[in-house]
């Protein structure tokens, strides 16, 4: 049985470059709060764009009515 892990799992020929230390580590609660805030922001953007799209669609319909008459 192999007890030395370096023999069992030798390093690759091209080791991965050293990863820089991450200065910001968030807790799960902080990450969830951030995701919630971003989701709410995206929801507000979606709602705003949806209203704008509906407004443009109604303006288009109104313009088409004027051209038909």
UniProtKB/TrEMBL annotation:
<keyword id="KW-0678">Repressor</keyword>
<keyword id="KW-0805">Transcription regulation</keyword>
<dbReference type="GO" id="GO:0003714">
    <property type="term" value="F:transcription corepressor activity"/>
</dbReference>
<keyword id="KW-0539">Nucleus</keyword>
<feature type="region of interest" description="Disordered">
    <location>
        <begin position="1"/>
        <end position="23"/>
    </location>
</feature>
<keyword id="KW-0804">Transcription</keyword>
<dbReference type="InterPro" id="IPR009146">
    <property type="entry name" value="Groucho_enhance"/>
</dbReference>
<comment type="similarity">
    <text>Belongs to the WD repeat Groucho/TLE family.</text>
</comment>
<dbReference type="GO" id="GO:0090090">
    <property type="term" value="P:negative regulation of canonical Wnt signaling pathway"/>
</dbReference>
<dbReference type="InterPro" id="IPR005617">
    <property type="entry name" value="Groucho/TLE_N"/>
</dbReference>
<dbReference type="GO" id="GO:0005634">
    <property type="term" value="C:nucleus"/>
</dbReference>
<feature type="domain" description="Groucho/TLE N-terminal Q-rich">
    <location>
        <begin position="24"/>
        <end position="69"/>
    </location>
</feature>
<keyword id="KW-0832">Ubl conjugation</keyword>
<feature type="coiled-coil region">
    <location>
        <begin position="32"/>
        <end position="59"/>
    </location>
</feature>
<keyword id="KW-0175">Coiled coil</keyword>
<dbReference type="GO" id="GO:0005667">
    <property type="term" value="C:transcription regulator complex"/>
</dbReference>
<dbReference type="Pfam" id="PF03920">
    <property type="entry name" value="TLE_N"/>
</dbReference>
<protein>
    <submittedName>
        <fullName>Transducin-like enhancer protein 4</fullName>
    </submittedName>
</protein>
